[in-house]
Amino acid sequence: MIAFPKHWFLATCLYLASFVGDLFDGLLARKLNQTSEFGGLIDMLTDRLSTLGLLYVLSGDYQPQDLEFGFPVFRLTFLVLIALDIASHWSQMFSTAILGAHHKGNDANAGRNSIVRLYYRNYFFFGYLCVGTEILYIAAYAFQFTEGMSCHRLLQATLWVSLPGCLLKQLVNVIQLFSACYSVANKDAKSKIK
Question: What residue ranges are annotated as transmembrane (predicted)?
């Protein structure tokens, strides 16, 4: 994506293949009873790193459009999304790890914000937000290369259709961040009282 931007179509296909593979590898591992703590760690790392890498690429690719605004709107947006993604996921993992629980588990999220509980309990809601977000990022990447091509309007429609899922995912990330921080602070307060 960075070194050979003229191969944007291949880069898009490879990213999509990786994304689709990620959707099914966990299901397959559970079905074949091949899950492990290490696999969970690697899965989360590759999810976060691939998304953050794509957001980094977008922050550079959309920099010329920022000149029209006279302010780095796109670049700042993508960089804020990177920071929010890291902060919310790290805080969620830390806050549930100190409880000795899985970050998606009902026991770990008991007492958390109802939206965070819904996000981790309802696989359809979880999937819609995650898939919507990734599809928006992928479509935003491909969109910039398709001006004048027949697929440009399809990508534009994809951006609009996936935007609600992406916006909701960012809202969940903010709520998850505050909920996790509150949980850790609450645990600290209880320890101090003892």
Answer: 6-28, 78-102, 123-143
CB 98 within 8 A of CB 187: yes
pLDDT digit string, tens, across residues 68-117: 777 888 899 999 999 999 999 999 888 888 877 777 767 777 777 889 88
- Residue 120, classified by CB atoms within 10 Å of its CB into exposed (0-12), middle (13-18) or buried (19+), is buried
The amino acid occupying position 134 is E
Catalytic residue of the set 22, 47, 85, 188: 47
Establish how many alpha carbons lie within 13 A of residue 11's alpha carbon, considering only the half-sphere containing its beta carbon.
20
pTM over 0.85: yes
Phi/psi at 163 (5° precision): -60, -45
Instruction: Tell me whether residue 66 is one of the annotated catalytic residues.
Output: no
3-state helix, strand, coil in the chain (%, to 5): 80, 0, 20
Nearest partner of 44 among 88, 14, 12, 89, judged by Cα: 89
**Amino acid at the residue 128:** Y
